[in-house]
Amino acid sequence: MNGLETTRISSRVILWIALVLLVVLYGFPFLYMLLTSFKTPLETIAVPPTVLPSTWTIENYASAIGRDGVVASFVNSVVTAVLSTLISLVLAVPAAYAVTRFRTRFGRFFIVGALVMRMVPPIVIGVPMIAIFRNLGISDTSFALAIAHATISLPLSIWLMSSFFEAVPEELEEAAKIDGASRLGALWRVVLPVTAGGVAVTAIFAFLASWNEFLFALLLTATRSQTTPIVIANFQTQFGLDWGAMTALAVLYSVPVILLALVLQRHIVAGLTAGAVKG
């Protein structure tokens, strides 16, 4: 018995050590960025670099917010992420429902093909989109960028929604049809309310995919619809990169998604768990 308890304690210690290492691995870059945002301009480029600021200052935040185009880029990021999320949900919900309810051979190929498309390098899709959006007259717009972002989130959205719909017993829809509901009515009045947590999880992932995206924003925007990641990358002075302002704006840009994840973490876990259990 003592040997068994010793083994359990050792396993827990090893697990905690691994978790701490993972937290340090993923958390230290953000912590270093946060600390750098409070350094003076000279200290940000000091060699060797220091972790803690010798003099704390909020000058970098004032400088970052005061730059031309920063506030507009935040608005563009929000608008693009919301539009991209809506496009993904509007397309993913009916696609996933059809795949899970009709269960055709084509449906199985479709769901696998959606995941395969997720592995295609974004640059392969982004370059043709430049010409397509220019010909359509929507280049350098948030709507065009949202469409591009939807190509990233849509495969995962379809896969997630398929797992959530699979967890809903078909008997619920049959009961709704007996009461006179059409298939579309059953989807809207029965299935979607039951999988509301899953829809929220899918929306969160789609929003984050758009919020963090850089390559399409670089290729498909010029001035009007530039998002914040592009503005951050353009923070330069005559002496090189303005690390203080860059890190300050990066911290400000990270805060909304961090708060979103913290506030909705229970819903995310609950939604993912609901999609993982059948019936």
UniProtKB/TrEMBL annotation:
Keywords: Cell membrane, Membrane, Transmembrane, Transmembrane helix, Transport. Gene3D superfamilies: MetI-like (1.10.3720.10). Residues 74-264 form the ABC transmembrane type-1 domain. The lineage of its organism: Bacteria, Bacillati, Actinomycetota, Actinomycetes, Micrococcales. It comes from the Bacteria. It comes from Herbiconiux oxytropis. The keyword Transport applies. This is Carbohydrate ABC transporter permease. The chain crosses the membrane at residues 12-35, 74-97, 109-131, 143-165, 186-211, 243-264. SUPFAM superfamilies: MetI-like.
